[in-house]
UniProtKB/TrEMBL annotation:
This is PSMD12/CSN4-like N-terminal domain-containing protein. The keyword Ribonucleoprotein does not apply. The keyword Nucleus applies. InterPro entries: PSMD12-CSN4-like_N, PSMD12/CSN4. It is found in: Cytoplasm; Nucleus. It comes from Zingiber officinale (Ginger). Residues 6-115 form the PSMD12/CSN4-like N-terminal domain.
Amino acid sequence: MSVLIIREKLAELYESEQQWSKAAQMLSGIDLDSGIRMLDDIYKLSKCVQIARLYLEDDDAVNAEAFINKASFLVSNSQHEVLNLQYKVCYARILDLKRKFLEAALRYYDISQIEKRQIGDEEIDEDALEQSLSAAVTCTILAAAGPQRSRVLANLYKVYKHLM
């Protein structure tokens, strides 16, 4: 367990110095798949999402996606709403960085439509929801032309019209 604690502390140090990839690499050295250590699924999910977020700070979608894919097996059974939301945000950003704009737009739109303003101890900022909606619009505009893009644009137009 001491290696785990040392890696977490070093990652915190790298993160405080805004060395995102180094922090992510430090955390990714923790063996989350080992049967030796009994780590619960919430811990594994939180580390996978944290590592993905750190890689995304450096716009490294490839490494972030590897950890979001690991998290996808854990998030389906998770009741931890904050982690689930962080997972969704990371996944949308990965799709955005990989230029899968229509898929990213749909994910951002889903995030922007969250009803609850309080999830666990976290309060969801109205600006964050507006930012997600704005990202959905941007990604939709950047998506390849086609009927699905037109449907998403029409839906986003209705949402904006409703907000005005």
